[in-house]
Design a protein that fits this description.
The protein is built from ten helices and ten strands. Strand 2 and strand 3 (149-160) form a beta hairpin. Helices cover 53% and strands 15% of the residues. The two termini are 27 Å apart. It is globular. By secondary structure, the protein is an alpha+beta fold.
């Protein structure tokens, strides 16, 4: 019988150690400020670029570090433990780079992957629309071929890195009558004629993420910027989202771990009835449940990344990881607020931020209900 491995490799441990040091020394001291201001943390993004975090799981040939996806999700977990906004920022790097690696021509890869992996240019992934969230086939953005160009018309909504990114992977119908076979993907650069931004949102949580609308009004995109063939769009989107769900699962693990650490410390320091509240069984049971569920969520996300690295199918595992980790994060945050009592309900207490971040996580990259649908569909095949 093949022995199951639960240990990270030496390379993965090195990434974990580097990410933890960066998170604790440079991200954590800024986390509350990033949340309070709700502005893009450009200086943190620049440091992430210097540390080569954006290109971690991509080939060295294109400016990456050729590390495993598991190394990447370990990094995301450490960043999210300090700030879910920064963990999410690293995840956006993944989903803006992967589609070009997956479906791009060699010319597209050479032009875009280096700057994106190096972090000198930032990317965004634009699928969601005002009328198309859980159902991507209901998008209304249209791309019409006109000689050597496509003309895009439509609007995207809730796109992370709106106005901040330099390169956008945008999905539009080139033939709506073909439904899923009629969606295509395009690389659209900031500054393209007919491309503008609107409605920067004031978010509940993950407030360092800049989220808003992309507006395309007779936007001219060179035909050479189409990713893959016409009709490849949905395939590209789904392959990308599978990986993003693993990443966001590790955002959940990071949030939950932060909840546990804050609650453990507070329970040992806070005294009531002449003793630390950690002595009370009610508090101990909450801490025990948090620790147990975090470990399970971590193993689910690591397993999904491991399967992706092996080249196995991992759609179900990715959905499980995202679903379970986001729900564990919500339960951990609720318990953390409860343990902290009145203090936990104030802006001075970090668990109040974790509570809001965890709720947002249950919505992004597919709601919990959508993840359950994916898991059931895979089980019923």
């Amino acid at each position: 019988m093949k022995r199951m491995e639960f240990e990270l490799s030496e390379g993965e441990k090195a990434v974990q150690s580097m990410a933890r040091e960066f998170a604790e020394n440079e991200v954590l001291p800024r986390a509350a400020e990033i949340d309070r201001k709700g502005k893009f943390p450009l200086d943190i993004a620049k440091r992430m670029a210097e540390l080569k975090l954006f290109g971690l799981p991509f080939p060295e040939k294109y400016g990456g570090s050729n590390a495993s996806l598991l190394s990447y999700v370990v990094m995301v977990e450490e960043l999210s433990r300090a700030s879910a906004s920064i963990g999410c920022l690293s995840a956006v790097g993944l989903i803006s780079i992967f589609p070009i690696l997956y479906a791009g021509s060699e010319e597209q890869k050479e032009k875009y992957l280096g700057p994106l992996c190096e972090g000198s240019r930032l990317g965004a992934f634009a699928l969601t629309e005002p009328t198309a969230g859980s159902d991507p086939l209901s998008i209304e953005t249209i791309a019409v071929r006109d000689g050597d160009e496509y003309v895009l018309n439509g609007r995207k909504a809730y796109i992370t890195n709106t106005a901040v990114a330099d390169v956008y992977v945008v999905f539009a119908y080139t033939d709506k009558s073909k439904k899923s076979a009629g969606m295509s993907a395009f690389i659209v650069e900031k500054g393209a004629k007919g491309f503008s931004f609107a409605n920067i949102e004031d978010l509940l949580g993950m407030r360092g993420c800049i989220v808003g609308d992309l507006v395309f009004k007779d936007c001219q995109v060179p035909a050479e910027n189409r990713l893959g063939s016409e009709g490849d769009g949905l395939k590209i989107a789904l392959a990308t989202l599978d990986r993003d769900r693993i990443a966001m699962g590790c955002v959940g693990v990071g949030i939950a771990q932060a909840c546990l650490e804050a609650s453990r410390k507070y329970a040992q320091e806070r005294k009531q009835f002449s003793q630390p509240i950690a002595n009370f069984q009610a508090v101990q049971f909450m801490l025990a449940d948090m620790a147990m569920e975090i470990e399970a969520a971590r193993l689910l996300t690591y397993k999904a990344a491991y399967r992706a690295d092996k080249g196995d199918k991992f759609t179900k595992e990715a959905a499980m990881a995202k679903l379970y980790a986001s729900e564990v994060a919500q339960r951990a945050a609720t318990s953390a607020v409860q343990i902290h009592g009145g203090y936990g309900c104030t802006k001075k207490c970090p668990v109040e931020r974790y509570f809001r971040d965890a709720k947002v996580l249950s919505i992004v990259v597919g709601t919990s209900e959508i993840q359950r649908m994916i898991i059931a569909r895979e089980e019923l095949k």
